[in-house]
Every structure is written in C-alpha cells, then in structure tokens.
Design brief:
386 residues, mainly beta, Neuraminidase, Immunoglobulin-like, 2 domains, 5-stranded antiparallel sheet, 2 helices, 25 strands, globular
Length: 386
C-alpha cells in the first residue's frame, strides 16, 4: 500500500513538472507570437484564453496597474474599441473607463478613423478599405470602397486644417504610401511613391499640417510631407508598438497624441509624441483593468453631439459653389450656420421655409460645413466654396 502511494506521488510530481514545463513553453510561444508586426486586432492573433494568459504574465512582470492618470485639461476623443467592437469616447479626465456609445455593426477590423472637422461625425475605414460615416449616436452609413495600391489597407486617417483628408496605407510587408482621399468621388490619390516605412501605422498632424506616422516594424517616427509624401526620420517612439494604433492632433494644446498598444505592457496607452524627436511620453493607461485596443482616435467637441444629426436630411446645391448656396429640406428650416474646418462660426442665419439661399461669395475658397436646424433636430453636410 505504501509502495503504491509512493509511486502515485512520484507520478503526480512528474505530471506537474511536465504540465508546468508545457505552460512555460506555451507562454514563450505566445510571447514570440506577440512580437510579429501585427497591424490588426489582438483577437486575430490570440484567443481569449491566450489573452488572459498574457495579461497574467505582464501583470506579474510589471505589477498590476490600478490607478490610471488623468490628463490635465481633459479632452474628448472619438474611437472604436476594437477588442469588443464598440464605438466609444475616451475622456482624458478619467482614463479608468470609456463611454460606450453603441456596438459597431462592422465585421472587419476598423483600422483608421478621423473626426470630420466642425461636426460630431467621423470617417472610419475597415481592413477591406470600406469607408463609413459614423454619427454621434454610433450609426454607420456606408460611403464607398476606396482602394489604395494593390494589397494595401488604410491604417491611419487625418484631416488637415484646410479640410483635406489624408490616409496612410500599408501591405504590412514593406509597402507604405500616403494618399489624399476624396470621399465625394471615392478616389484615393497617392502622394509620391512608397515612403520606406515597413508597416506604417496611424496618421496625425501638427499646427502646420505636417503629417506624422510611425512604423511598428522599427518603432521609428516619421514626419511626412503632405505635398510629396517624402518621409523625414525623427527618432524612436520609445515603446514596442504592436497591433492597431491611433493618432490625433489637439489644436488647443498643440499636441500630437497616440492611442498606443504597447506590447511590453500588453495595455492600451495614451501617449504624447514629440514632433521634433519622435519620442513619446506616457500620459496614462486606458482602462488598466482590461486589455482594450483603439486603432484610431480623433478629438471632437462633445457639445456637437447633443442632437441627432441623422434624423433630418437636406439637399444643397450647387456644390461646389461660387456665390449662392441653396438649401432645401422636407421639413421647415429654422436655422442655418456655416463653420470652417477649424470649427469657427462664420455665418449664422434664422430662416422660415423649406428652401433658402445663402450668399457665400465673401467666403474664401475651401471646404466648409453647413448645419441646418429643423425643429429639435440638426443635420450637417460639407460643401466647397470655389
């Protein structure tokens, strides 16, 4: 009996040693897989069980983060929380939580997005290069499929102050290109040629409309000339970037920010990026209790989202226009307001009718946003003044 018990204990000990060794092998395999130039979702690479294993490993290695830092002078950012597929708002006053607006209806990974200047709406694009407009309530409207070069997918979008929309696209294997995107014609025009980034991820800008991106293969930051597409190397970003990343420019503080996924901490982080050296500074961990991911972020004014911009439709013509913009709606129009792409109010007019003509001849050439108020609802559209 004693001999049987002895051999049973020995067998159990050997089994536990084998199990522990196997667990270690599995962890090492997960860590090797983690560092592999992944430009999409964490769930494309790991199962939920594997994510839990990695969470436990990094919490043990780095210490569990329980108190996120608040960013002084809190700002609001539109984003998609990609691991669970939700339209969300990040409030930098409190990084311990995010506001879930609505579930995303998209089946593909949302790799890039940018808030439309002067509106609460955002442009987002998935990995199949399908473009959508998302309103303040999380409703998606399909625009078109806009293809970059063969094999590339958009990984970053950014509006410049003059209303131009740019995108960076990569094939994940050494081909990355800057594009100017026209949503009206559903065209993406390459700016220059391939810029040398292996896996360019995210796109941001500064006050002078210089564009920025970083490479998750080399973790280097580049300034990209919006006219030629030529890159200028700034330096290392200072963390190990993997999976989808986002960038956004805050004009109120002249700061370039990133919603970064750091594979050395296995956490989503809010970082500021020095536009001279490329070095980033950790501002805080976003919801440290969970492992979330934000492949795009874009600053917006939450006061613009208090009304439903999708309930009322109106038409405007001609667009582009040189002198007069005519606006027609199915319900009585009460207010007309026009903003530039910086959100500055240029025209405000009270009206009463189903159609109104607005003199825009004094406006400079460029892109503008017109908001139409009909009762308790508002709608907004862009128009071009030639």
């Amino acid at each position: 009996m004693k001999t049987t018990t002895f051999f049973t204990l020995v067998a159990l000990l050997i089994f536990c040693q084998i199990a522990n060794a196997q667990q270690e092998i599995d962890l090492q395999e997960l860590l090797q897989r983690l560092h592999g130039n992944h430009m999409g979702s964490i769930h494309d690479v790991f199962s939920q069980e594997e994510i839990t294993t990695l969470q436990a490993h990094f919490d043990k290695k780095n210490g569990t983060i329980t108190t996120p830092r608040a960013v002084q002078g809190g700002m609001f950012y539109r984003a998609t929380e990609n691991t669970q597929g939700n339209s969300a708002v990040i409030n930098t006053n409190d990084l311990s939580m995010i506001e879930i607006v609505a579930p995303s209806p998209l089946m593909e990974f949302e790799g890039a997005g940018a808030t439309i200047p002067g509106t609460p709406r955002a442009v987002v694009v998935d990995n199949n290069n399908n473009f959508y407009i998302v309103d303040s309530t999380g409703n998606y409207t399909f625009v078109d499929q806009i293809e970059p070069a063969n094999g590339q997918s958009f990984t970053g979008l950014e509006y410049t102050s003059d209303g131009a929309l740019y995108g960076i696209a990569t094939d994940g294997m050494g081909s990355t290109t800057l594009y100017e995107i026209d949503l009206l014609t559903a065209q993406a025009t390459a700016v220059g040629t391939e810029n040398g980034l292996v896996v360019g991820i995210a796109l941001g800008r500064d006050m002078d409309n210089n564009l920025y991106s970083y490479d998750i293969d080399t973790n280097l930051v580049y300034r990209i000339d919006r006219l030629t597409g030529a890159p200028t190397l700034l330096g290392p970003i200072g963390f190990n970037a993997e999976f989808g990343q986002g960038m956004s420019y805050d004009s109120s503080t002249n700061t370039l920010l990133a919603s970064a996924f750091n594979s050395d901490t296995f956490k989503p982080e809010l970082r500021s990026i020095n536009t001279t050296t490329g070095t980033s500074t950790l501002l805080g961990v976003i919801v440290p209790a969970l492992t979330l991911q934000f492949a795009w972020m874009s600053k917006y004014d939450p006061s613009l989202g208090v009304t439903d911009f999708s309930t009322e439709r109106f038409t405007l013509y001609p667009n582009p226009t040189t002198h007069v913009l005519t606006i027609s709606a199915l319900t009585n129009i009460e207010t007309i307001t026009i903003y530039n792409t910086l959100g500055q109010l240029l025209v405000e007019q009270r009206v009463d009718g189903l159609s109104v003509s607005v003199d825009v001849s004094e406006l400079a050439s460029g892109l503008y946003i017109v908001q139409v108020g009909t009762g308790q609802a508002q709608s907004s559209q862009q128009f071009i003044k030639q």
